[in-house]
Design brief:
This protein has 268 residues and is of the alpha/beta class. 46% of the residues lie in helices and 14% in strands. The chain binds pterin-6-yl-methyl-monophosphate. Pterin-6-yl-methyl-monophosphate binds next to strand 1 and strand 5.
Length: 268
């Protein structure tokens, strides 16, 4: 069955949960809760990638994430480190992270792929066309799902040249990264193009703007968040159907239930 990755953003400015988990104790407790709810992996990030977010110095990023990564790893919880920075990736693997989640697929930091190669960790290669401050200007495609798959294929080749065996690679179509709302839906509808590359595939739609727009659930009130989590559970179940190996979400319970219902349907 499709695995669930629980999101732990240790940032002041992530778009849906910024500021909530800056205290390591609060962050660790939240991760424990996500794990108990059924998350197979906790994806720890210390830098927001939301559109227009400012870059965080690596020292500050590491100050936020390393104590939490270490505590979770010590507790036996599988951790992935969500970072664009090779030094942070290496430090997090030393602290116990098993997977490096780079939404840029090694493009943001030219040292990333060779650094990850040496650690032996698995790596998420996301589809990315440039930093978040101008990524919408790069959202130019003719057939978006096909182009995403072919650009990911190029990044897998770059990873292989850096010494990362294909079996260590997890691909991510990068929902929301250099894509308009309509393009995000096209990428999801055409997910088989990415699945056909033969790697594990991770899909992250959680609470993203294209969902909010589709169901008209703007604002940060509990009702709007609950509606976005329900929509996320649906896209995650559909992604699972389309061959996703894992989905990355804030609300583990809603997605767990959606995946269980889908599995019951498919298993009957
Ligand atoms: N999206 C965000 C952050 N990290 N990692 C992967 N692999 N895939 C994604 O789609 C992804 C990611 C942005 O969302 P957040 O601010 O809610 O974490």
């Amino acid at each position: 069955m499709t695995a669930i990755w629980g999101i732990l953003n240790i940032t002041p400015d992530s778009f849906s949960d910024g500021g909530r988990y800056l205290d390591p104790e609060v962050a660790i407790a939240h991760a424990g809760r996500l794990r108990a709810q059924g998350a197979a992996v906790i994806d720890v990030g210390g830098e927001s990638t939301r559109p227009g977010a400012e870059r965080v110095p690596a020292v500050e990023e590491q100050r936020r994430v390393l104590p939490v990564v270490e505590a979770l790893a010590t507790a036996g919880i599988p951790v992935s480190i969500d970072t664009l920075n090779a030094d942070t990736a290496v430090a997090a693997v030393r602290a116990g992270a098993r997977i490096v989640n780079d939404v840029s697929g090694g493009l943001a930091d030219e040292r990333m792929l060779s650094a990850v190669a040496e650690t032996g960790a698995d790596v998420v290669i996301g589809h990315w066309r440039g930093p978040s401050d101008d990524m919408y200007a790069r959202a130019q495609y003719v057939r978006v799902a096909r182009e995403v798959a072919s650009e990911l294929h190029e990044r897998v080749a770059a990873a292989a040249s850096a010494g990362i065996a294909p079996a260590r690679v997890i691909l991510d179509p990068g929902v929301g990264f250099a894509k308009s709302g309509a393009q995000n839906w096209e990428v999801l509808r055409g997910l088989d193009e990415v699945v056909a590359l033969g790697h594990r595939v991770l899909v992250g739609t959680s609470r993203k703007r294209f969902l909010t727009e589709t169901i008209a659930a703007t604002g940060s009130g509990a009702d709007a968040v609950a509606r976005r989590d329900l929509a996320t559970a649906v896209t995650s179940a559909l992604a699972a159907r389309a061959g996703a190996w894992a989905v990355r979400v804030h609300d583990v319970v809603a997605t767990r239930d959606a995946l269980a219902v889908t599995a019951a349907w498919d298993g009957a």
